[in-house]
Amino acid sequence: MLAANLENMESVLAQAFVTGEFSDLTLRLRGKEWKVHRLVLCAESTWFQDQMIRGNLDGVEPLDMSEGDELCDVLLMDVLLNYLYMPNLRLRVLYHPDWPVHKSGGYHIRLFAKLYRLAYDLGICGL
């Protein structure tokens, strides 16, 4: 019964991310916006926890993630947010269909390095 409830919760979280249902915060990055949930972000990220404690996640205004970080781009943030919301799919969401493919046929190692750096900067463990 517990496993069924956990699967249902993961499904609910994934659906909430995709639809933005019950969101209480908007993240903005270079023109793209995501409707997210402070509970999910703060549970997974020490950076978001710190922002919440400082009162920067009031949900009234979108949180602009663009300032001061050239490593952070829309595709990387999209992959990272999918990672946070879909724990059962974590290994499968560490790519994005819009990522450029290296001439060897795989994704360029620099994309993964940027992704890991972004996760590190946001205090997201386990990636």
Automatic annotation (TrEMBL):
Domain BTB: 23-93
Classification via Gene3D superfamilies: Potassium Channel Kv1.1, Chain A (3.30.710.10)
UniProt cross-references to InterPro entries, sorted A to Z: BTB/POZ_dom, SKP1/BTB/POZ_sf
CDD domains named among the record's database cross-references: BTB_POZ_ZBTB_KLHL-like
PROSITE patterns named in the record: BTB (PS50097)
Pfam family, one: BTB
Protein's name in the database: BTB domain-containing protein
Organism: Aulographum hederae CBS 113979
